[in-house]
Design a protein that fits this description.
Blueprint lengths: L16 H7 L4 H11 L10 E5 L6 H14 L1 H4 L2 E5 L10 H18 L3 H15 L9 H14 L2 E6 L2 H7 L4 H8 L6 E6 L4 H4 L9 E5 L5 H15 L4 H9 L1 H11 L3 H13 L5 H21 L3 H13 L3 E2 H8 L3 H13 L3 E6 L2 E8 L2 H11 L2 H17 L7 H12 L4 H13 L8 H8 L4 H14 L3 H11 L7 H4 L1 H13 L3 H10 L2 H4 L1 H12 L9 H20 L7
Parallel strand pairs: 1-4, 1-5, 2-3, 3-4
Antiparallel strand pairs: 6-8, 7-8
Helix pairs in contact: 2-3, 5-6, 5-7, 6-7, 11-12, 11-13, 11-14, 13-20, 14-15, 15-19, 16-17, 16-18, 17-18, 22-24, 24-25, 24-27, 28-30, 30-31
């Protein structure tokens, strides 16, 4: 049915080069930038070494292979560099002798891939001789000299594409300075390494590799980039991909909601594409469940590989969902704060959690680094309330993104056309202005009801809420506004965005913001419409409050906050005295 049936989710090495390149949908621009930097390497100059940092699943392994193929296919680069790929985890590296033997093995693999069996056999004999030689050469002098001899004969500088560089450097804890000296030789080895976490060997000024690598941090894919990548894969699939292409146009809300819930992970991109091609008619929660089922074995093993105390701390961080400080983890887990801090440091070093800032504390907070891992943990191990919040968030995001990324004015125009060709929205806007302005004649009940009666329930209740607010009847205003939000989805923010924002701003202007916020929480609306409530809290108490909620909520909350805050940002600055 096409090349994309050969897409690999976890191990791109199983694909042939052509299939791999066809399926390499994300990180194209980054790959080109890195290849351009590698092109600055001269045959006999000092090397610039690169480090790619990124959470699991963000595409580090695929990016390394893409660089290898890019060097191979560019005659200018291939004249200088010899790209060597390695297995993902070099667990056997405990001294430099083993590392240089691994480099010789990688060179032998290159000979084999390029159809050169005779030098491959000769190199294998050298490796066998070195492996059986004396064991009193932990610096690997003989193995390094043999490796350098082979690459000199080829007239090219070895480009070591090293995945999980942290494992290698940890295994060389006592020989890192020797490795650095080897990598600083003019005309010698060039390294592009990848790691899921920051490397201890690069962090301290006294460390061997401090300020040694040019660092590239992989960020999750944005929603627009995710949609472009899905579209590219669908186009390459031909006929089977047509349904996916149509879905990207007709139901962007489903894709954008899944983006927020999966964290923009390129590994999940492949899973998502295959899922959408199988079933274009699903809903967000069903999609999410099916994606989670496919990663369950991987994530379960990740948890079980941890030591007991690390698992306890992971459990507390994952179930909190929002970022938490060590004291909060200690309270939830029953462990001492010092023990929790030590375990958080270990989990951060392993790339499982990450530090973030929150507004409520000057201490660092922590969250799971791979957001889809957190969603999986909530669905498999979370209490009923957290699983319900996830279901409600899924429904909210689907409705919220239903019309795609459009501005307030376009929504109002579209809604007006849909509801009434005689422009009901214009009449409603004039009514809202009349309600809010003291210098306009009061709106009588008949005129009010004439317009309200032409709206669906959500629009009618919004106007009732605004009138009650203007009259100072906060309970009635809260009742009407809660009725607007009776369904756990974000549709009202696409149909009546302007009126929702107007009501919330006016409540804040009249000093009722906190009371309204408290009422929304008491009614459970903070669960069913979490991004809206989080955005309103930030509007009332400062943008920094957005950092206190998890990224799955924050993305939509950020957008709502920007809508709410737009009039304040457009106000001219106060004159200086």
């Amino acid at each position: 049915m096409g090349e994309l049936l050969e897409l690999a989710v976890y191990n791109p090495a199983i694909l042939d080069d052509a299939s791999f390149l066809n399926g390499f949908a994300a990180r194209q621009d980054l790959a080109e930038r890195l290849l351009q930097r590698l092109g600055e390497t001269t045959a006999d100059g000092l090397a610039t070494h690169h480090l790619i940092l990124g959470q699991r699943g963000l595409g580090k392994t695929s990016l390394l292979r893409r660089l290898a193929l890019g060097v191979r296919d560019d005659p200018r680069l291939a004249a200088v560099l010899l790209p060597l790929l390695f297995r993902e985890e070099q667990y056997n590296v405990h001294n430099l002798h083993v590392l240089w033997l691994n480099c010789l093995d990688a060179l032998g693999d290159w000979f084999e891939r390029t159809g050169q069996p005779e030098p491959a056999a000769a190199l294998d004999r050298d490796v066998a001789r070195l492996a059986q030689g004396p064991t009193d050469d932990p610096e690997g002098t003989a193995a390094l000299e043999t490796f350098q001899r082979w690459t000199r004969e080829l007239g090219r500088r070895p480009l070591l594409l090293l995945d999980n560089l942290d494992i290698i450097l940890n295994g060389l804890a006592k020989q890192q300075w020797s490795l650095r000296r080897a990598l600083q030789r003019p005309g010698g080895i060039v390294v592009v390494g990848a790691s899921a976490g920051w490397l201890e060997a690069t962090e301290e000024k006294s460390a061997a590799f401090y300020d040694f690598f040019q660092v590239t941090v992989l960020e999750p894919l944005g929603a627009d980039e995710l949609i472009r990548c899905l579209g590219r894969l669908a186009a390459l699939r031909g006929e089977p991909g047509r349904a996916v292409q149509a879905l990207l146009t007709t139901d962007p809300g489903r894709i954008r909601a899944l983006h927020d819930l999966t964290g923009g992970n390129p590994r999940t991109l492949t899973l998502l594409y295959l899922l959408l091609e199988t079933d274009t008619g699903g809903d967000v929660l069903t999609d999410l469940e099916r994606l989670l089922d496919q990663v369950s074995v991987l994530y379960k093993a990740r948890v079980e590989d941890l030591a007991l105390q690390s698992r306890v701390v992971l459990d507390a961080v994952a179930l909190a969902w929002d970022p938490v400080i060590a004291a909060e983890v200690a309270a939830a887990s029953g462990l001492a704060t010092g023990t929790v801090s030590a375990q958080l440091t270990r989990l951060e070093r392993d790339g499982i959690v990450q530090r973030v800032s929150v507004s409520r504390s000057n201490r660092d907070a922590y969250q799971l680094a791979e957001r889809f891992f957190n969603i999986w943990y909530l669905m498999r191990h979370g209490p009923r309330r957290q699983r319900a919040r996830l279901r409600w968030l899924s429904a909210f995001l689907r409705g919220f993104y239903l019309r795609g990324q459009v501005d307030e004015a376009k929504i109002a125009y579209t809604t007006a056309q849909a509801l009434d060709p005689d422009n009901l929205i214009t009449a409603s806007n004039l009514l809202a202005i009349a309600l809010l302005r003291d210098d306009i004649a009061p709106v009588d009940d008949a005129a009010f009801n004439a317009i309200v009666g032409r709206h669906p329930d959500s629009g009618a209740n919004l106007l009732r809420a605004l009138r009650a607010l203007v009259r100072g009847d906060l309970p009635a205003a809260a009742d009407a506004f809660a009725a607007v939000l009776s369904q756990p989805d974000g549709d009202v923010l696409t149909l009546y965005q302007g009126f929702v924002l107007l009501f919330l701003r006016e409540a804040a202007r009249r000093g009722h913001g906190d009371a309204l916020l408290s009422d929304l929480r008491d009614r459970g609306i903070a669960d069913t419409h979490w991004p809206l409530v989080a955005a309103y809290e930030a509007y009332l108490h400062g943008e920094a409050r957005l950092a206190d909620v998890n990224p799955e909520v924050r993305t939509a909350a950020r957008r709502i906050y920007d809508w709410l805050d737009a009039p304040r940002r457009s106000e001219p600055p106060a004159p200086r005295r």
